[in-house]
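New to this. Help decode both lines:
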Amino acid sequence: MLEEPSLVLLETATLNALQAIVGENRVLTDDDSLRHYGRDWTRFYQPAPSAIVLPGSVDEVQAIVRLAADQKLALVPSGGRTGLSAGSVACNGEIVLALDRMNSISDFNPMDRTVRCGAGVITEQLQQFAANQGLYYPVDFASAGSSQIGGNISTNAGGIKVIRHGMTRDWVAGLKLVTGTGELLDLNQGLIKNNAGYDLRQLAIGAEGTLGIVVEATMQLDRAPRDLAVMVLGVSDMSAIMEVLTAFQAAIELSAFEFFSELALQKVVEHQGLQRPFETPCEYYALLEFEQADESVLDQAMVLFEQCVERGWVLDGTVSQSETQAKNLWRLREDISETITPWTPYKNDISTVISKVPAFLAEVDAAVKKSYPDFEIVWFGHIGDGNVHLNILKPDALSVDEFRAQCGEVSQWVFEIVQRYGGSVSAEHGVGLLKKDYLHYSRSPLEIEIMKQIKKVFDPQGIMNPGKIFDL
């Protein structure tokens, strides 16, 4: 197991200055707080921040950054701490800016379908606000109940609806960013069309806090979906899944197309008290979601299902008959991450173009099994957008350090395959600490150098989430 965090002492004058900005009770240095705020969902790094600061306004964030820039103190922004690449882990004495208090929702505009959110707004909070207005915020994933909008923007979070609704960046109409000098940028201001020079808003999205701190965002909302139906189909192999995707997409507008392996299903059923969707065991399962604007849509879906069975692509299947059944079918996919957490999974979040996924996944699977046949491998992901999640479960006999070392070798082979397929080493989780040694498999030396130069413009002192994505 990881060691307990140790206190990295700040100068008393610095602590006093931070307390003067946010209040005495909002600068935390106790071990429990350091442990809680200093890490995310990864468990491969020891949290060791020097202090936790909880600002409550944009002005307070600016004041903290100016203080840090003046004293050259490293800052790590922290949202819901649900990241999977150690992008918000503070392990080198940094000051953590936890944005939990900046959680207000305001300025809803029904005509523009926009709303202003503080960085600390929980994703589910925004989803519920939209629903209360008869609208919809479509970016959704398993951690929606704890992830925060600022963190979603900083990692360009994707999730389960990307095939239809895109990534977080597609729903950010404007944002406010505090740069590494403490200046405030108000970017795009909610405009739909704005071609006046570079879009710095898009640079900040997905930058993992290395260019500045997202403090506020104007988020776009959508119309509410109508009568969603969910199908789970058992297929013989990955190629069959892609045939099913092609067949359904040609006739029905899908809002989701997910997949998971038999082992993933076994783990969820065993540990979450859920029922198998049907008795037939299959190598992989596809989960489809679509709107039923009228009865003809479900009729068409059933015709497609029968055609897929006749062609040997689908072995069995089921479709939701109620909202409760739809939610339970979704849990078979969404509960996977939570279910496998006790195994300290080593996660690879990889992607390629959709048409190459079957061959891509087969090569990766074979490479891992050949060298580590005793490792359990759980596959799931957003197959409709080419993103697959490789989860290697830690055997009980291995320590965390031994397991991580062996998985590091696995990653080397996996990312060589990713590079050969022109894919990404991080499809949606970000780079953080976990993936930065492998960034060159997805970005050229020139691209990485340009990124470093951009960071120096936004953050000349190098205080914003240093060591994440790349080293300067």
Remarks:
- The radius of gyration is 23 Å.
- The first strand starts at residue 27 and ends at 28.
- Residues 400-420 form the longest helix (21 residues).
